[in-house]
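Structure (tokenized):
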């Protein structure tokens, strides 16, 4: 499988590009799934780009800050 073919599955829980890696050698396969979930909850987007032999780039894009104006009366 090429790097591009792995991209759609990278954010699946427990997915590993290298099936030979065990928990003992690092990672549980949950990291990117958690990032994707957090980004969705905040209205953002996780962008993943990969070039074979060069590596991958991960970017989190958040929506613009929404300001809520409330007046509080202190008596």
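Design, position by position:
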């Amino acid at each position: 499988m090429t790097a591009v073919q792995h991209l759609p599955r990278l954010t699946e829980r427990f997915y590993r590009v290298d099936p030979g890696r065990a928990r003992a050698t690092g990672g549980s396969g949950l990291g990117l799934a958690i990032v994707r979930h957090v980004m969705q909850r905040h209205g953002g987007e996780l962008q993943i780009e990969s070039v074979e032999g060069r590596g991958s780039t991960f970017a989190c894009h958040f929506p613009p800050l929404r300001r809520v104006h409330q007046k509080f009366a202190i008596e």
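Reviewer-requested clarification: The mean pLDDT is 82. The chain has one domain: 3-61.
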